[in-house]
Amino acid sequence: MTTTAARPPTPTLEQVAALAGVSRATVSRVINDSPRVSPAARDAVHAAVEALRYVPNRMARSLVTRRTDTIALVLSESNTQIFADPFFARIVRGLSARLADTELNLVLLAARGGREQEKVARYVQQGHVDGVILISLHRDDLLPDLLARSPVPLVLSGRPFDGRAVPYVDADNVGGAAAATTHLLQLGRSRIGTVAGPLDMVAGLDRLTGYRTALAAAGTPARPELVAEGDFTEAGGSRAMARLLSEVPDLDAVFVASDPMAVGALRVLRAAGRRVPDDVAVVGFDDAEVAASCDPPLTTVAQPLEEMTGALVDLLLEQIGSGGSAVEARLCGTALVRRASA
């Protein structure tokens, strides 16, 4: 017969108080980060907690602080898109790294359709999280309106379509796209197409604006047939590049609004016998890991994702601390990374 050793009893709040020489209420205040405790009492409680290996009851703590120590990352995309696009993995890694030294936990929620978005809104409104970071918004998304009805603090990744007063962090998509297009112009390219991002997303619209702005500054007409809309996926980039080649077979450069789409565009150009960069120069956007390893290595626009994820967390913590009263926007700069494709 196998016997199992009895587990030692779990230390109690009263035992911590007795060892620290303070009241139970003082221990509770220290654990809940109350400022109404002397430094000496705080040090004594921390020493007792460590000696007894006391673990606070998080459920009881949340009843006192009304905090869950959890924030939600809500991605307005399908699961397929989230796990296929390396951009989202980099966002999750960045947020996790920023939260590693805090007591906060990160939960990931995917919500693309109306039913899923309503379910996420109910989850948030029921008090399961202390704040929300909302990423990859589309024009028809219900979430901004649904979450606005909740007192839970909210920060957007990307500026809001309607200009509503909500904190957000964004990359300089217009400036980055303009720099990419200007680079192609400086290489002497004159028939520059673009594989645009989805035009129901701010990033897609802003990168198309940057492309057109650079052409206008150079006095080059923006021809409608040189614009093909993609969807930020590799397959979407392939389809859009094929459309561009059929419409303008003599194009000599293309700005692609995401690196996964650029990989698809390179595949189509290779299949069509077009050499990169000799016949067609290609610039992407994101500086994803694939950009350096594809053939040829991709010139692209780097987004400072570490800076952006840090800013998202900082703004959300400020919102949580202030009760959601402050509204701040942060625009993060981009940089052109030159490689063999252009």
Automatic annotation (TrEMBL):
Keyword DNA-binding included in the entry's annotation: yes
Highest taxon of source: Bacteria
Keywords: DNA-binding, Transcription, Transcription regulation
Gene3D superfamilies recorded: 3.40.50.2300, lambda repressor-like DNA-binding domains
Pfam families: LacI (PF00356), Peripla_BP_3 (PF13377)
InterPro entries: HTH_LacI (IPR000843), LacI/GalR-like_sensor (IPR046335), Lambda_DNA-bd_dom_sf (IPR010982), Peripla_BP_I (IPR028082)
SUPFAM superfamilies membership: lambda repressor-like DNA-binding domains (SSF47413), Periplasmic binding protein-like I (SSF53822)
UniProt name for this protein: LacI family DNA-binding transcriptional regulator
Domain named HTH lacI-type: residues: 11-65
Keyword field contains Transcription regulation: yes
Gene Ontology molecular-function annotations: DNA binding
